[in-house]
Amino acid sequence: MKPKIFIxxxxxxxxxxxxxxxxxxxxxxxxxIPQAERRNPDMRRQMLNxxxxxxxxxPDDAARESVSMLDxxxxxxxxxxxxxxxxxxxxxxGFAEMDAQQADRIANARFVANPGCYPTGAIGLIxxxxxxxxLPSDYPxxxxxxxxYTGGGKQMIAQMExxxxxxxxxxxxxxxxxxxxxxxxxxxQLHGMLSRRPIFSPSVGRFAQGMIVQVPLHLSELxxxxxxxxxxxxxxxxxxxQDIVEVVPLAVSAKLGRLDPTELNDTNRMKLFVxxxxxxxxxxxxxxLDNLGKGASGAAVQNMDLMLGxxx
Length: 312
Description:
6-stranded parallel beta sheet; globular
């Protein structure tokens, strides 16, 4: 019997992407609510309780409501793409490459919290260095990032693309999260294994998909007399054998004159780079990913496959 998959919120940006990614698969039985009935609580409850895996593509409060609709059901497993449960210890964090055991935790979990797009890049760069003892957990981390505007959902897509909209955004690039209280900070700190609150400065560019996340470091503030090569070696060792996360060789990075945030669009991959030189005393760690791929829908599909015992 095919596993039954229900996407609660399938008509939103993330839900549509997941639906498209699963559309050609014959190994799944997709449950669906017509768009006109998407707010029908009885129909949602029925689908949630019939599903083997429910993927929640909803705002935080609506995602919590969906979990409450499981009616004592102990069989439906849940992937939540909202921020509601990313620091909840009862939920497995859905970044499979984060630790050697994380894919198994996801595979065996009933509840999985899909990571945020920005934190996926930042945690992917930071956590391996903390675990390796190179990056102090109390280092004053700054994360600077730019995303395609699809990360803001349907409302921002309309603001960017519809010049006649009263709240149209005409800027080619804009900074937000100016109070440094973005909802991703708690997730980034916890799963980045940081004891000190990081500074997170997100921005949006006039391109639909794609993302660059940067973590600049002063080598003199790290543990030991470290070089850019040492940082690269630690990342390379952490992700050895992975086919989704790629640590780009230093020799390749050194020849690059620029990075395109859209390079990995429509893929589930993530590239990690280490730039800098010891004589400057500085390094810049960079993650490149599709904010709708490894940063959202692609990660949800990867987690679903792990939970179903399929190769991710």
